[in-house]
Write a structure and sequence with these properties.
Elements (H helix, E strand, L loop, with lengths): L11 E2 L13 E2 L9 E3 L3 E7 L27 H18 L10 E7 L4 H13 L4 E2 L11 E4 L6 E2 L3 E3 L16 E3 L4 H14 L4 E7 L2 H17 L2 E8 L5 H13 L4 E5 L2 H13 L6 E4 L7 H5 L10 E5 L7 H6 L10 H11 L31 H26 L11 H10 L1 E3 L5 E3 L9 E9 L5 E10 L8 E3 L26 E5 L8 E5 L4 E3 L7 E3 L1 E3 L6 H26 L4 H4 L3 H17 L9 H35 L12 H25 L3 E5 L6 E7 L3 H24 L10 H24 L3 H32 L6 H12 L1
Parallel strand pairs: 4-5, 4-7, 9-10, 11-12, 11-13, 13-14, 14-15, 25-27
Antiparallel strand pairs: 1-8, 2-6, 3-5, 15-18, 16-17, 18-19, 19-20, 21-22, 23-24, 26-27
Main location: membrane
GO biological process, one term: sensory perception of taste
GO molecular function: G protein-coupled receptor activity
Length: about 850
């Protein structure tokens, strides 16, 4: 099948590999081109650049007729080799698929960056231009047949359709500067915001930061600081380090950490930059710091397996979400130098992992019979495929884009004319691509060419062998709603020093209620003193930076409890008025005239006052309302009980008067009844006057019961006065109950005593239970208990005494006769 070519955007090269047009429109390569270390030519080839060797001093060599590989240092990257084999594994998986790119085979050209930016540029040039010494004008703007660039690290040139599995710098999301850049790894912008949310979640408002002095660290910490400021987090210090710094610089950073008061340190550093600092910390035995790590090192197994770095125990941070790639390990361990005998990279890899040499025939020589499956190292370990999975998804992203491009070409009528898709069209295909890989992960890109940010929250915990292991304790997923993005399983976490004790890192402790923040001059807003608020004030709940008046609480007419009590009070008054009206209409009937109708109307009047006085307990207490509520309550209830007591005595006297020769009623006639009611009420009035004169009730702001609010209540003034009023009312009630109880067996037709007994029983029960409830109820509930007692006792008197009479008046009028009222009484008397 003929090689397919796809038009690419014109290359803009910087630093190395400049295309210099001549009068004959010929370009000439400057220097020696790089050669691919692993390659397989197919219909469409994917170019990739990984790091396999250490960097070495590169020289621009004159072009020779036979290209030679550029010299790098020694092989030192099992990780890079693993990435390369993952790319090959993925390509073979795609080639074996009947659904994706049917009839098209993918190949690859994998180059070495030698951990050097300049070598990366040369490798990119070789991908674009091939090995020709003299290039035509079109060669300068067109890559070799069928090559799609797969750029692995940040490269110093602008090229069409770049996709990275490892470049996390937030700067690459700028579509004006990098319109053709895509990546399968999340931007550090999301990681920085996730870290800020994590720190906020744990309540750490005072942290130190250490960063790599480069794009990764500078941009990452800048984004973190911006997010941290929004979350109310303060940065005590921000140190920058680089692996090439002298030891003095790392010692200086160590001193800053030691002198700092922040117990939490965020390390947004590359692995290579972090090693020298960790060594210095280990030498000085610095412990007790809660480390928060970025994805670059939080799952770096070498750190976890180094016992000198045990002070990292309890470290927490976000790692790229893990995945499981079925069949990958089998593919990795089947790699063998015999597959490509002339491939030096495979031999270097074999010599590195087995510590042998193909150039030696001694005991240290490689035989080729060694088995990778028996090794347990970074290359064969497939438990941590976080970045490897990004290589896997990047290849699939290119394959799906190619699939859509070719599908569109086949179905388009313009394809017969040989027209190719424009660069912008191919970019649109890449931007719109969406698919699900075998791991179950949905792959798509946003408008900036970034994927959804999905991280695993990792906690370093001690293993049985003394090393540290990575424990999954939560996740962050930017595709979820903001309130669900972060999830932390805190109960499974270990903190600094293998402790279960949750670390605290604040500049100043939170101000207690009743005090406010006062920012310390020249220090961040997280550092403050707590100044007491004035009496009746409390700090505001949001910032606690100012004192505000406490919430004032009292039983209000506008709240539900106040409304309900008001309704019952008005309902009681309405019922009392209806009974009074009914009695007035039937005032000449025997049942109303019996047992002194005058006392009945006076009792109804006093009950109306009882229902009415309950309203004085609702609303904001004032000087007048405090005096009125207690005195009105005492006087109206004594008036009410006096009337009931008078009716009870009348029942007893009336029954005695029916006996032959009895003249007892002349001693307790209407005049005596009135005098008894007035006298008994007058005693209560005197008690109330003395109370109001000596020490009256007054409005009082109770600040001691609740710290966060003020209870506005009526202080009794004199507790003796209150209990004297209540005691006198209780004494009359008990006397009334005893007399009614003694009269309970009098003739039925003429007997109110049993109804009075029942009403006074309820009355006394209510007020006996009132005392402990009144004493123990807080705030407005004290008032509510008192109103409930007033209403309950008033309703008991109204229903028990007057309901039976209303029943006869309305429903049994035939019994409302003098004969009916006196008949049974006469017969029993005889």
């Amino acid at each position: 099948m003929a090689k397919r070519t796809v038009s690419l955007l014109q290359l803009l090269l910087v630093v190395y590999g400049v295309c210099v047009p001549s009068s004959a429109q010929i370009c000439r390569l400057l220097g020696q081109p790089a050669l691919p270390l692993l390659s397989a030519q197919k219909d469409i080839n994917i170019g990739a650049i990984f790091s396999f060797h250490k960097s070495a001093l590169l020289k621009i060599q004159p072009f020779t007729s036979k290209p030679k590989p550029t010299t790098c240092g020694s092989f030192n990257s099992l990780r890079g080799f693993k990435y390369a084999q993952t790319l090959i594994f993925t390509i073979e998986e795609i080639n074996n698929s009947t659904q994706l790119l049917p009839g098209v085979s993918l190949g690859y050209k994998i180059y070495d960056s030698c951990s050097s930016i300049s070598q990366t540029v040369l490798s990119g040039m070789s991908l674009m231009n091939g090995y020709e010494e003299t290039l035509s004008d079109t060669s300068c703007s067109r890559p070799p047949s069928g090559v799609y660039l797969f750029i692995i690290i940040i490269i110093l040139f602008f090229i069409f359709l770049q996709i990275s599995h490892f470049a996390t710098c937030a700067c690459l999301s700028n579509r004006k500067r990098f319109p053709s850049f895509f990546r399968t790894i999340p931007s550090d912008y999301y990681q920085s915001r996730a870290l800020a949310q994590l720190v906020k979640h744990f309540g750490w408002t005072w942290v130190g930061t250490v960063r790599s002095r480069g794009d990764y660290g500078n941009n990452g910490i800048a984004a973190f600081e911006e997010a941290a400021k929004q979350e109310g987090i303060c940065i005590e210090y921000s140190e920058a380090i680089l692996s090439t710094d002298p030891k003095e610089q790392f010692l200086k950073t160590l001193e800053v950490i030691k002198k700092g008061t922040a117990r939490v340190v965020l390390a947004f550093v590359a692995v290579g930059d972090f090693v020298p600092l960790l060594n210095v910390i280990a030498q000085h035995n610095i412990t007790g710091i809660q480390w928060v790590g970025s994805e670059s090192w939080i799952t770096y197994r070498t750190f976890a397996e180094t016992k000198e770095y045990s002070f990292l125990s309890g470290a927490v941070g976000f790692a790229i979400a893990n995945a499981k790639l079925v069949g990958l390990r089998e593919f990795l361990v089947n790699v063998h130098p015999n597959q490509e005998p002339n491939n030096e990279l495979l031999k270097e890899f074999w010599e590195t992992v087995f510590q042998c040499s193909f150039r030696s025939n001694s005991s240290g020589g490689c035989t080729g019979s060694e088995k990778l499956a028996e090794l347990q190292n970074e290359y064969t370990d497939v438990s941590e495929l976080r970045i490897v999975n990004k290589v896997y998804t990047a290849v699939y992203a290119i394959a799906h884009t190619l699939h859509n491009v070719l599908k569109d070409l086949r179905s388009s009528t313009s394809s017969s004319k040989g027209e190719r898709p424009t660069p912008q069209k191919v970019l649109d295909y890449m931007r719109d691509v969406r698919f699900t890989v075998k791991t179950g992960e949905d792959i798509f890109f946003d408008v900036s060419g970034d994927p959804a940010a999905k991280y695993d929250l990792i906690n370093w915990q001690p293993a049985d062998d003394g090393s540290l292991q990575f424990k999954y304790v939560g996740f962050y997923d930017s595709s979820l709603p903001s309130e669900q993005c972060l999830r932390v399983i805190q109960e499974h976490m270990i903190w600094a020093g293998n402790s279960r004790q949750f670390p605290v890192s604040v500049c100043s402790e939170s101000c207690t209620p009743g005090t406010r923040k006062a920012v310390q001059k020249g220090r961040p807003v997280c550092c403050y003193d707590c100044i007491p608020c004035a009496e009746g004030e409390i700090n505001n709940e949001t910032g606690k930076d100012k004192c505000v008046l406490k919430v004032v609480e009292f039983l209000s007419y506008t709240e539900i409890m106040g409304m309900v009590l008001c309704i019952f009070s008005f309902f009681g008054m309405l019922l009392t008025a209806i009974v009074s009206f009914l009695f007035y209409l039937h005032k000449e009937t025997p049942i109303v005239r019996a047992n002194n109708s005058e006392l009945s109307f006076l009792l109804l009047f006093s009950l109306s006052l009882c229902f009415l006085c309950s309203l004085t307990f609702i609303g904001q207490p004032t000087e007048w309302s405090c005096m009125l509520r207690h005195t009105a309550f005492g006087i109206t209830f004594v008036l009410c009980i006096s009337c009931v007591l008078g009716k009870t005595i009348v029942v007893l006297m009336a029954f005695r008067a029916t006996l032959p020769g009895s003249n007892v009623m002349k001693w307790f006639g209407p005049l005596q009844q009135r005098l008894s009611v007035v006298s008994l009420s007058l005693i209560q009035m005197i008690i109330c006057v003395l109370w109001l004169t000596i020490s009256p009730p007054f409005p009082y702001m109770n600040l001691s019961y609740y710290r966060e609010k003020v209870i506005l209540e009526c202080n009794l003034g004199s507790a003796l006065g209150f209990w004297a009023v209540l005691g006198y009312t209780g004494l009359l009630s008990i006397l009334c109950f005893i007399l009614a109880f003694l009269a309970r067996n009098l003739p039925d037709n003429f007997n109110e005593a049993k109804f009075i007994t029942f009403s006074m029983l309820i009355f006394c029960a209510v007020w006996i239970t009132f005392i402990p409830a009144y004493v123990s109820s807080p705030g407005k509930f004290t008032v509510a208990v008192q109103i409930f007692a007033i209403l309950a006792s008033s309703f008991s008197l109204l229903f028990c005494i007057f309901a039976p009479k209303c029943y006869i008046i309305l429903l049994k009028p035939e019994k409302n006769t003098k004969k009916q009222m006196m008949g049974k009484s006469s017969s029993k008397a005889l």
